[in-house]
Specification:
mainly beta; N-terminal domain of TfIIb; 2 domains; three-stranded antiparallel β-sheet; 1 helix; 3% helix; nucleic acid binding; metal-binding; zinc; zinc-finger; Zn_ribbon_RPC11_C
Length: 119
């Protein structure tokens, strides 16, 4: 029972073990690529190998999510102790991050070291 699931947009396929129907995983053995079942001893050597690379998107920093560096330009400061440097003053910004019936989230940025946290 060998069947393939094909996705044309990304050009990959999944093979299933003909003995136990589990997904075959890629494995390198003695310099050759093969598909190997992790449940039973079945394996199949791959003759035409097409290598691909995977790229990841850079995650947004918290500043860009809150409006970038401009979001911190004209904010008020408050007396609160920074956990990083023990400075007694920090800028604060309130943002509605959840539903309207929930309280606003307060983001803090230390005036001294720039450490950020939220409550």
């Amino acid at each position: 029972m060998s069947s393939k699931v094909v996705n044309e947009s990304s050009m990959f396929y999944i093979d299933f073990c003909p003995n136990c129907s589990n997904i075959l995983h890629l494995d390198e053995y003695l310099g050759e690529m093969r598909q190997k079942c992790q449940v039973c001893p079945y394996f199949s050597t791959i003759k035409n190998v097409m290598l691909a690379s995977r790229s990841f998107y850079k995650l947004k920093e918290i500043d860009s999510v809150l409006g970038g560096k401009n979001a911190w330009e004209n904010v008020d400061s408050i007396d609160v102790v920074c956990n990083s440097c023990n400075h007694g003053r920090a800028y604060f910004l309130q943002v509605q991050t959840r539903s309207a019936d929930e309280p606003m989230t307060v983001f803090y940025k230390c005036c001294n070291c720039g450490h950020r946290w939220r409550e």
